[in-house]
Description:
By secondary structure, the chain is an alpha/beta fold. The chain contains 16 helices and 21 strands.
Amino acid sequence: LLYWFLVTERTPSPQEIRKRKDTFVVIVGAGYSGLCAAIRLKKERIRFVLIEKSETLGGTWWDNKYPGCACDIPSHFYSLSFKLNAFWTKMYSSGDEIQDYLEDTADYYGIREHVKFSCKVDTCEFNKETQKWSVKTSTGHEFECNYLISGMGALHVPKFPSLKGMEEFQGEHFHTAQWKDDFDWSGKRVGIIGTGSSSIQAVPKLAERCEELYVFQRTPAWIFPLLNLRYPAIIQKLFQAFPFVMKLHRLYFFFRSEFVFAAFFGKVSLAREIISNLTNQLMSNEVADPKLAEKLIPKYSMFSKRITISNDYLKTFNRPNVHLITEPIQEITHNSILLKNNQDASAKEVELDAIIYATGFDVLQSSTNMDIKNPNNGKSLSTIWGETPNAYMGIMPAGLPNFFMLFGPGTVLGHSSAIFMTECQIDFMMKTITRSIDNNCSSVEVTQEMNEGYQSYVTEGLKKVVYGTSPECKGWYYNESGTNYTLWPASCLHYWWKTSQVNFEDFKTTKACDKE
Length: 516
Ligand code: N01
């Protein structure tokens, strides 16, 4: 692992390059993972095109422009291992700074010229004769490729609640991931629905200028305080002069998160009990009114939902213009939200000029946002998956040859850097693709048995963690039956170990493939 962190990767030999010249890859999505995959393919001298539905790259960091948008994972750990950034200004970066980093990274590796912007992939069909994917886009482009990579991520299709009367509302209304740049909330009565990570970052900023801010909470979030230190110029210079020190700094965050996982994420954990009580106390201290504090503190087990971090969210409720609403929403009218009153049939009305939906993302829809079919039975991926998506290592869904997913099912994290995971996945994928080319295979596919074996392993793992199955709370981790199909059930070190071994011989391969 130290090698992975501290040493740069090898370059391909001229013989390998010659063999790779006929291979072409389509990557869907130019966010962190799609960009990283593109860089790795370029380094391996494999041709590719990146297809991106937005007008620029950045993915989630381009989409999310709500006030206060930031990353709650340390910046040096939320960077690509081969493109560290000595200039991060703070321990936890703003969305803008991450977007700048991604744009700079794309330019540094000359990726932009490979991207088709404002182009959405519609359908992907695998031709068993040619052993190639045919990828059709909304702009009428068609690409034939040997390998198809989905870098679409799990959190990009906004999820709106289905509330009666939503379409009647006449004021401004939009999702946090579709923020309107010209929206000025000064002097307005604003309602924000949802209290997940996005809302917790946006609420303090909105409260500063709103006339009244109404926060509609269904489930309170666990909130940790944040020590967001600035990196002084001297430290930035040190990192520039001695990148090794920066790598060690990054390594520190890795091991810190591994410790956090080991100590707090078990099914039963005394350490979690202690930290929950402490956090409960810290959260109560932030809010002046004890009755209000009680409503803001979760009752479910910590870490069974994504925790959030903030120094100012809870304090915001001490402002006279900020109101917590915990009654369920009954319906939306042309100028208000009506709340259910459990005592009688009358509804309480909250008049509003704007409604912001901080209601998260549709994970299933995000992962299957293009029509991709199993070439043997013609069934789409979403039909095959049903309510429990699954893929071998979270990367290779069974039945789809030469197809790789980044941030596929069971690979998201609640405690550490998603960038670490995506690099593990890309390593695994690159090894599989290059082994496939080296072995003259025209297709490589995971077998049902391999996938089933892997899923049993994941299911066993989920029994050991607090977020495995949670009847206590709902959220995007879980399907309707309460099964967590989104998160990796063990430590990052464990995932690195599993993905570092590619059992190529076990895959189903076609054509003249000389298995070693
Ligand atoms: O969305 P969420 P998010 N009526 O799904 C509520 C990442 N992220 O955009 O809990 C009323 O967490 C819902 O209530 P409940 C991060 O991984 C990272 O905030 O279902 N309320 C919940 O409170 C995060 O986890 C950063 O009861 C309704 C909220 O809406 C993920 O993105 C920053 C409702 C949705 O919360 C998603 O975060 C931001 C209804 N009908 C986001 N429907 C970083 O810093 C839903 N809700 C890296």
